[in-house]
Design a protein that fits this description.
Elements (H helix, E strand, L loop, with lengths): L3 E4 L3 H12 L4 E5 L13 E3 L4 H11 L4 E4 L6 H14 L3 E4 L12 E4 L2 H7 L6 E5 L15 E6 L12 E5 L6 H11 L3 E5 L8 H9 L3 E4 L9 E2 L2 H9 L1
């Protein structure tokens, strides 16, 4: 009998566990615990880390997990790497449910950088008004560029003020639409968007809005991961767990 562990925290994970529950397939959804107000889920939920790859492997064995699905964020490289190692240690099949990366199209004004430090380095320019669309984890890195005015859109209010002298915070949860994102950028006079290449549709509106307004985007590329079995399709995950 199947016993599925889904490593989540994404829209795709939420959609997947809804389909698993609808199909009557037993599953547990695991969160890292970075969101203060996670959405209710139709399956049991656990919150917190596992203690690295060895701890996750022990969890897989102890709970007799038959299928491990990595549906974490494309930038959650540590947990994805640990999941691959844990699956090998425990002998548990692993499939990653991933999002296609965003690709610049006609009219996009993108500059690619490799990582957060490279994005910070790229902001060594005269004062600009920047939409920092990165969540709250990396805000401290941009304290090295205090000359800019930052617009921050966060899921939860920060527990401590961001270390940015000039910033404005909006608390909101996606998915967002192009019309509202265009209005947001125009209202705040945004002249640069900094974004991770998260892919998918839930956060793409800001990129379309930036294209339509001809606002440049500083795009942070995804971290490299070892080869693994993966799909972009929830139906393929359902077929996989049934085999």
């Amino acid at each position: 009998m199947q016993n599925i562990l889904v490593l989540g925290g994404t829209i795709e994970a939420t959609r997947l566990v809804a389909e698993l529950a609808r199909a009557g397939l037993p599953a547990t959804l695991s969160y890292a615990g970075r969101v203060d107000r996670p959405k209710p889920q139709p399956v049991p939920v656990r919150v917190g880390g596992f203690g690295g790859a060895d701890g996750l492997a022990q969890y897989l064995r102890t709970h007799h997990i038959t299928h491990l699905v990595d549906a974490t964020h494309p930038f959650a490289a540590t947990i994805s790497t640990n999941a691959m190692r844990a699956a090998r240690l425990a002998g548990t099949p692993l499939l990653a449910l991933t999002r296609p990366a965003w690709i610049a199209g006609d009219g996009d004004l993108w500059t690619h950088v490799a990582d957060i430090p490279a994005a910070v380095a790229a902001l060594n320019v005269p004062r600009r008004t920047i939409m920092l669309a990165l969540g709250r984890m990396h805000l401290h890195a941009f304290a090295a560029r205090p000359a800019h005015r930052y617009l921050l859109r966060l899921v939860d209010p920060p527990q401590t003020p961001p270390p940015l002298p000039d910033h404005h915070i909006i608390i909101d949860r996606g998915p967002f639409d192009v019309t509202s994102d265009k209005g947001l950028m125009q209202a705040h006079g945004i002249d640069l968007v900094v974004s991770k290449n998260a892919g998918g549709t839930g956060a793409q509106a800001k990129l379309i809005a930036a294209r339509q307004l001809q606002i440049p985007v500083l795009m942070i590329d995804r971290p490299a991961l070892p080869d693994r079995a993966q799909t972009h399709d929830i139906a393929s995950v359902l077929d996989w767990v049934r085999t």
